[in-house]
From TrEMBL:
<dbReference type="GO" id="GO:0003746">
    <property type="term" value="F:translation elongation factor activity"/>
</dbReference>
<dbReference type="InterPro" id="IPR014039">
    <property type="entry name" value="Transl_elong_EFTs/EF1B_dimer"/>
</dbReference>
<dbReference type="InterPro" id="IPR009060">
    <property type="entry name" value="UBA-like_sf"/>
</dbReference>
<comment type="function">
    <text>Associates with the EF-Tu.GDP complex and induces the exchange of GDP to GTP. It remains bound to the aminoacyl-tRNA.EF-Tu.GTP complex up to the GTP hydrolysis stage on the ribosome.</text>
</comment>
<dbReference type="InterPro" id="IPR001816">
    <property type="entry name" value="Transl_elong_EFTs/EF1B"/>
</dbReference>
<dbReference type="InterPro" id="IPR036402">
    <property type="entry name" value="EF-Ts_dimer_sf"/>
</dbReference>
<keyword id="KW-0251">Elongation factor</keyword>
<feature type="domain" description="Translation elongation factor EFTs/EF1B dimerisation">
    <location>
        <begin position="70"/>
        <end position="272"/>
    </location>
</feature>
<keyword id="KW-0648">Protein biosynthesis</keyword>
<dbReference type="InterPro" id="IPR018101">
    <property type="entry name" value="Transl_elong_Ts_CS"/>
</dbReference>
<feature type="region of interest" description="Involved in Mg(2+) ion dislocation from EF-Tu">
    <location>
        <begin position="79"/>
        <end position="82"/>
    </location>
</feature>
<dbReference type="GO" id="GO:0005737">
    <property type="term" value="C:cytoplasm"/>
</dbReference>
<dbReference type="Pfam" id="PF00889">
    <property type="entry name" value="EF_TS"/>
</dbReference>
<keyword id="KW-0963">Cytoplasm</keyword>
<comment type="similarity">
    <text>Belongs to the EF-Ts family.</text>
</comment>
<protein>
    <recommendedName>
        <fullName>Elongation factor Ts</fullName>
    </recommendedName>
</protein>
Amino acid sequence: MAIKASQVMELRKKSGAGIMDAKKALVETDGDMDKAMDYLREKGIAKAAKKSDRIAAEGLTDIVVDGNTAAIVELNSETDFVAASDPFKAALNDVAKKIVENKPADVDAALEIKTDNGTLGEDLTETTRQTGEKVSLRRFAVVDKADGDNFGAYLHQGGRIAALVVLEGADEATAKDVAMHVAAVNPEFMTRDDVSAERLDHERKIFKEETLNEGKPAKIVDKIVEGRLNKFLSEICLADQAFVKDSDKTVAEYVASKGGKLKSFIRYEVGEGIEKKQSNIADEVQQELNR
């Protein structure tokens, strides 16, 4: 099948592979993006892509804690200039406070929350009018904790990244340290038990193909694969990750040393999963495809 330049650009961005490697992978897999990514990994050309690799939209995140309830919110704008403006920041803070107070079920319900000027949705329309750009509530999460638990809240890069953590026991300072770690390292799961059997089988298959392609002796392939799988899990699971402030301990060990236990985490990065139009390398890709 014909491979489009846009497909090559997307795979190149996700994998870090060169243009021709990306093109070959797509040709070999009939344009299937996920299979092409696996192909590159099997050849040792790319590593597993993180979910936040596709970041484009502008805006900010915020976290508001009110007693045993916290809300983490992402508000989007069209440019970072508007996201840095006072009207946008005021709207974000107001939205987060209203969500904590009302605990809406979803974005549609949040936009119907009553305010002094009408509804939250109408307030955002007014912010759009003030800034000259569309301002929209993209997502939020409301988290409740028990009396003996502790929230850890951390905003990075002025709110480009937000992390909200709940610990059983320990203290607020420890919870904030873990939130800082989550913001910096971006784990996918809390523990290995949270990783599905399907995901484990998939990763094991990829590592086996990669190991065989390296020419390792057949009798030690399975052992190497399990070692690589364990390393992979230690990189994507919060509990097993090396703690950023003390790499001699895992995050779970650090929390346990403070008398606590990991309960949950949420991490938002502005625009993750939203693809922005990319044109700076389009001509270069098209030239390579035409060869």
